[in-house]
Design a protein that fits this description.
CATH topology of chain A: Rossmann fold
Number of helices of chain A: 6
Number of domains of chain B: 1
Strand content of chain B: 5-15%
Order of helices and strands of chain A: EHEHEHHEHH
Shape of chain A: globular
Oligomer: heterodimer
Radius of gyration of chain B: 34 Å
Strand content of chain A: 15-25%
Shape of chain B: rod-shaped
Strand order of the largest sheet of chain B: 1-2
Helix content of chain B: over 70%
CATH superfamily of chain A: ATPase, V1 complex, subunit F
Largest sheet of chain A: 4 strands, parallel
Distance between the termini of chain B: 48 Å
Largest interface: A-B, 42 and 65 residues
CATH class of chain B: Mainly Alpha
Number of strands of chain A: 4
Number of helices of chain B: 3
Number of domains of chain A: 1
Radius of gyration of chain A: 15 Å
CATH architecture of chain A: 3-Layer(aba) Sandwich
Structural class of chain B: mainly alpha
């Protein structure tokens, strides 16, 4: 099954405006409520991937959690204009802990 | 904990079949879990690496973008990039990894042949913006790969957890329960048999007297 999807970006204005130049669908938001609505609308309108900046994402955990177990849309965190907050990496670690029981990734480093 | 059943021969046969099914199911699920885990670990390593790389690059390019914005002024910049030259859409197909449906993403650029990635004329924009957009343009394929890998990881983690629950429920609850109940019924039946036998012997000896 192959379908065409769009790609959306949600986040604060400074960070997401750059993606406009690439031809992605961009929604600049300021408050968590706006962000929630933007993500939900985008999911309904058939966006296959929604990039959300970390700064915005930490306010709308619930909404993101809701889409976590669906195949589409994939909500992916990207660093905002202030740089990476490490939420994305922490999410990966959560996944590992959930699946394996121990954190195997950070053991490799230290 | 044994199940609350009548100690009859019929119940015994039924339980034995159920035990057989449970053991077989347990073996299959265990195999599934092992395989899922193997795939998951490979994938999650890749996910980790990819995310680090993408985050670095993206931060860099956003920083450049901020610079460009500072140099050019917000309005000019927005005016310059408001009409992109290309449109990117996504082809999503499904892939089945051990009964987990994961998306496979492939993105399609729709733009005019040979159009440049810069959606503006060079007269009024600064070189910083060119650099920033070029960088962003180069990160995009990786970003989409990250999206695919990360989503797969999420879905697989979920499936692994579910499978583990099932395996544990079978291994530590269902199978011991069945075994114990089967043992209980066998004992009870044997006991009954012995009871009947002694009674028969007793009756026989009483008749003989």
């Amino acid at each position: 099954m192959i379908c065409m999807y769009k790609i959306g970006v949600v986040g604060e204005r400074d960070a997401v405006i750059a993606f406009l130049a690439l031809g992605l669908q961009v929604r600049a938001v300021e408050t968590p409520e706006e962000a929630m609505r933007a993500v939900d609308t985008m999911a309904r309108e058939g966006n296959g991937v929604i990039f959300v900046t970390e700064t915005t994402a930490k306010e709308i955990e619930e909404t993101i959690e809701r889409y976590k177990n669906q195949m589409l849309p994939a909500i992916i965190l990207i660093p905002g204009s202030q740089g990476s907050l490490g939420i994305g990496l922490a999410k990966i670690k959560d996944n590992v802990e959930k699946a394996v029981g121990v954190d195997i990734l950070s053991k490799k480093e230290g | 904990m044994k199940l609350n059943v009548n100690p009859t021969r019929m119940e015994l046969t039924r339980l034995k079949t159920r035990l057989k099914v449970a053991v077989r199911g347990h073996k299959l699920l265990k195999d599934k879990q092992d395989e899922l885990m193997k795939k998951f670990i490979d994938l999650v390593r890749k996910n980790d690496e990819l995310r680090r790389a993408v985050e670095d690059e993206l931060t860099e390019s956003l920083k450049d973008f901020m610079m460009a914005k500072a140099v050019m002024g917000t309005e000019m910049l927005e005016e310059a990039i408001i009409m992109p030259t290309e449109k990117i859409s996504l082809n999503v197909s499904k892939k089945n990894i051990m009964s987990v449906n994961v998306p496979v993403m492939e993105f399609v650029r729709e733009g005019k042949e040979g159009a440049s990635i810069y959606p503006y004329g060079f007269a009024q924009t600064s070189a910083e913006l060119d650099g920033a957009i070029k960088k962003l343009h180069n990160v995009l394929p990786q970003l989409l790969q990250l999206a695919e890998v990360e989503k797969s990881c999420q879905l697989m983690a979920d499936e692994i957890e579910k499978t583990r629950r099932r395996v544990n429920a079978l291994e530590y609850v269902m199978i011991p329960q069945f075994k114990e109940t089967i043992k209980y019924i066998t004992m009870k039946l044997e006991e009954n048999e012995r009871g009947t036998l002694t009674r028969l012997m007793k009756v026989k000896s009483m008749i003989q007297k």
